[in-house]
Design brief:
This protein is mainly beta and about 90 residues long. Helix content is about 10%, strand content about 35%.
């Protein structure tokens, strides 16, 4: 049986290492918080609970630590860092 590697602590270079769409899919499956690094320079921490890469403007939705929901277009995201504890 092969051992799965955790994404905890991974900070991919979107475009160099992997496509943003692939990182969003991994963040959606991740069982911890992530940090979105936004194009405007802000960081947003939260749990990704929805995404749609097939939408006219692909987006993801996450809950921040206060429970507020945020919807962001992929175009607003530079990268996603897997900063929260992987509970799996």
């Amino acid at each position: 049986m092969s051992e799965e590697r955790s994404l905890e602590g991974w900070a991919p270079r979107v475009g160099d290492e992997v496509a943003l769409e692939a990182v969003v899919d991994l963040a959606f499956d991740y069982r911890g918080d992530v940090t979105l690094v936004l194009a405007d320079g802000r960081d947003l921490i939260g749990y990704v609970y929805n995404r749609d890469r097939e939408a006219a403007e692909p987006y993801l939705t996450l809950f921040d630590p206060s429970g507020a929901s945020h919807t962001l277009r992929y175009a607003e995201i530079r990268t996603i860092r897997f900063t929260g504890r992987d509970t799996a």
